[in-house]
Amino acid sequence: MATSETHNHDHDHGDSGHHVDPLWLYLAVFGALLVMTAVTVGASYIDFGAASVAVAVLIATVKAFLVAFFFMHLRHDKPFHSLVLVSGLLFLSFLFLFTLSDHGTRNDVDDMHGKPIVNPAPTASK
């Protein structure tokens, strides 16, 4: 039986090998996530106008990338798994895009009558 001192590491373990990252790397990523959380809180107090949602989504995307890349070990994983993640994020971005485009057209003008489209006022029930 081979011990760890006599084990020959000249052969390939493949992609399924377990990778152990140093503790300082996890602590650095954790610190970066804490800083990004503080940036998120700070950004919530600043009025970016129409770009407020974009700024919040950008910060959240960076934080999600850090979690997926380091804590979910995507940097050591097969490229196909990264492709699946990127495909899912692309699909999610389309959902956000369609939602924001719908939200942006809520006060359009009714072309038939030339009046702004407004929601009817609720009637008071007795």
How would you sum up this structure, described in words?
This protein is mainly α and 126 residues long. It has a domain at 23-104. The protein is built from three helices and two strands, in the order H-H-H-E-E. It has helices spanning 23-44, 52-71, 79-104; strands at 109-110, 115-116. Strands 1-2 form a two-stranded antiparallel sheet. Strand 1 (109-110) and strand 2 form a beta hairpin. The N and C termini lie far apart (87 Å). 0% of the residues are buried. The mean pLDDT is 79.
Q: Could you outline the blueprint of secondary structure elements for this entry?
A:
Layout: H1 23-44, H2 52-71, H3 79-104, E1 109-110, E2 115-116
Antiparallel strand pairs: 1-2
List keywords for this structure.
two-stranded antiparallel sheet; 2 strands; 3 helices; mainly alpha; 126 residues
Distance between the termini: 87 Å
Tally of strands = 2
Coarse structural class: mainly alpha
Give the neighbour order of strands across the main sheet: 1-2
Number of helices: 3
Uncertain regions: pLDDT < 50 for 5+ in a row? none
- From the alpha carbons, calculate the radius of gyration and give it in angstroms: 25 Å
Element-level helix/strand string:
HHHEE
What's the pLDDT, averaged over the residues?
79
What portion of residues belong to β-strands?
under 5%
Which sheet architecture does the biggest sheet show?
A: 2 strands, antiparallel
Helix content: 40-55%
What coarse outline follows from CA principal-axis ratios?
Answer: elongated
